[in-house]
Amino acid sequence: MTKSQATDNSTTDSLIDQAITEVTIGTAKRYQVLIADDEPIIREGIRDCIDWAALGMEVAAEAEDGEEALELVGQLHIDIVLVDMNMPFMDGIELIRRLREERPECRCLIISGHDEFAYAQEAVRLGVEDYILKPVDADQLHAALLRLRQRMDEEHKRAAYVEQAAGQIERNIPLLRQRFCLEWLEGQHTGKDVMEQLAFLRLPSRPPAQIGVVRWPAAEARQTIMRENDRQLFLFAAENIIGELLEDCPHVLFRDANGLIGICLWQEAPETIGASMEQAIGRYLNIAVHTHVESNAGGLEGAIDAYRVSRDRVYGESQLSPIVRRARQLIQEGYADRELTLEALASRLQVSAVYLSRVLKKELNDSFVTLVTRARIRKAVQLLDSTTLSIYDIAERTGYDSQHYFSTAFKKTMGVSPVQYRKGGGIQESTVE
Q1: According to its UniProt record, where is this protein located (predicted)?
Q2: Which of 166, 271, 289, 390 is 20–30 Å from 407 (CA)?
């Protein structure tokens, strides 16, 4: 804890103590007492034998029967009731029982002429604070009221601390979510603990749909000459841009010790979200980042694997040339275009088709056709899983000229036809990377 934090905590404690003092013994806010007894001389004797102000209390009202007492408690916001057992219309036990139901925060102290075990037993069951026999001994009553005030003071103080802690937690919920997601995806939380934390932090109880990572390689390479304040400022700005792009999806952004920005998504983002992040950050901040968003089909534990894959991918991205990264991005964005050819892509990138084909094979170990097919089938799987579109419509949406050509490509990649895939509810072991 820093010195400033210790000072802040000390100040907060002082303010709480001050507030409690004002509530409990301040002249304006004292505990309100009601004396309920059918004998006026008894009420007068109780009222006059106690220095109420010294106890931080005041007698707000008197009642000669239980019904009147119950009504006054509600009207005057009474804190403490001194209850006689034998009163007309509603006796002391019934009054206490009603108060427990209607005003559970109100405290009751019995003053009775009956020294009977049955009364005492019932009083204990109803949570009565004390049981004093008539004739009332002033010192005994004062001691009982003092004990009661001390208990109430302590409870108010605890409530103030709980309220303060709840407020601090509420203010720090975003930070707590970030820390939890980082620790969880790094494998520090599992099973029941994850579910409890998700509930406590008011996050969806279902597994994340996607896990992503954004990496800024230049910050790592230039750490020795980049001021830490500047580095943090750029990362913060990047997080804001990512947050705006994901504003329609439930998500948490977090950052690890190396400056990687992690993304936990509880709803699938658009397929091009990774490319959109790279473009927006590049446009607004003039820095190059690498992104990867991995689908999670493995439940809560699978999220950890998805995070590891995403991290591995963004570190692997640093080995790719800018032209390959851009080519892959354009394929991911334009897979539905029937005019998407190697020649058309090479023209957009201002290189020859032969050169583009060679660098794709060298750096990704895949041909242009394989990359396009993979992007199309990935989208087709998503549509089969989440929509009732016909096979013909899905073929059109994924860039195929005919349903037959689409079905052939799908079966070659997935091992089953689109119809079989949909009937079987998907093939869990089959994946399209």
Answers
A1: Cytoplasm
A2: 271
Beta bridge partners of 131: 110
Which helix or strand (DSSP H or E) is residue 287 part of?
A: none
pLDDT of residue 33: 95
250: left (phi over 0), alpha (psi -120 to 50) or beta: beta
Q: Are 336 and 270 in contact (CB under 8 A)?
A: no
Q: Which two tokens stand for residue 315?
A: 């570190």
Give the tokens for residue 414: 């997935």
Which residues pair with residue 81 across a beta bridge?
Answer: 34, 108
Calpha distance 292→286 (Å, rounded): 19
Longest dimension (CA), the chain: 111
CA distances from 284 to 217, 242, 259, 314 (A): 17, 12, 19, 21
pLDDT at 4: 41
Element (H, E) at 187: none
What pLDDT is stored for residue 3 in this prediction? 42
pTM above 0.90, yes or no: no
Residue 26: its pLDDT value, please? Answer: 39
pLDDT < 70 stretches in the chain:
1-29, 114-127, 221-226, 317-318, 425-433
User: Which string of DSSP letters, residue by residue, matches 302-314?
Assistant: HHHHHHHHHHHHH
What is the reported pLDDT for 281?
92
State which H helix or E strand residue 295 sits in. strand 290-295
Distance CA 426, CA 157 (A): 58
Instruction: For residue 318, count other CB atoms closer than 10 A to its CB.
Output: 11
Rounded to 5 degrees, φ, ψ at 365 are 60, 30
Nearest to 292 by CA among 255, 269, 270, 317: 317
DSSP 36-90: E-S-HHHHHHHHHHS-TGGGTEEEEEEESSHHHHHHHHHHHT-SEEEEES--SSS
What per-residue confidence (pLDDT) applies to 9? 43
How is 207-274 classified by DSSP, letter by letter?
PPSEEEEEE-HHHHHTTTTS-HHHHHHHHHHHHHHHHHHTTTS-EEEEE-TT-PEEEEESSPPPTTHH
User: What is the full DSSP assignment across 314-365?
Assistant: HHHHTTS-HHHHHHHHHHHHHTT-TT--HHHHHHHHTS-HHHHHHHHHHHHS
C-alpha–C-alpha distance, residues 317 and 335, integer Å: 21
